[in-house]
Amino acid sequence: MNPIIPIVFVAGAALGALPAFEVPFVQSLVLTCLLYAGLAVSWSMFSGPTRYLSLATSAFFGLGAYCTAWGLGKLPWPLIILLGGMAAMVFAFLIGLITLKLRGAYFAVITYGLGELVRHTITHVEKTYFHTVGRVLTEAPSAAVVYWTVLAIAALAAWTYVAFGRSRWGHALRGIGMDEERTATLGVNPMRVKLVGFCLSSWFAGALGAAMAVRWTYIDPHTVFNPFIVFQTVLISMVGGPLTVAGPLVGAVGFSLLSEYLRLSLPYLYMIILGVLLIASVLYLPDGIAGHDWKKHFRRKAQPEQKP
Amino acid sequence: MHSQSKRLTLKTTLAVLAGLTFAAGSFSGSAQAQDAPIKVGYTQSRSGPFAAGSQTTQEPNYLLWADMVNKAGGLNVQGKRRMVELVGVDDRSDIETMVRSYEKFMTVDKVDIVLPPWGTGSNFAVAPVANKHGYPMVAPTALSQKLVDMKLPYYFVTLQQPKPMMQALVDMLAANGVKTAAVSYMDDLFGLENIGALEPMLKEKGIQVVDKKSYPLGVKDLSPMLKGMKAANPDAFIGITYPPDNFLITGQAKEIGFAPKVFYTAVGTAFPIYRERMGKSSEGVMGMGSWNPKMSKGAKDYFDAHVALNKKEPDRWASAHAWAALQILQQTVEKVGLDRKAMRDHIAGTEFDTVLGKMRFNGTEEQGVPGMVGQWQNGEFEIVWPPARATAKPVMPKVWN
Question: Is residue A261 part of a domain?
Answer without folding.
Answer: no
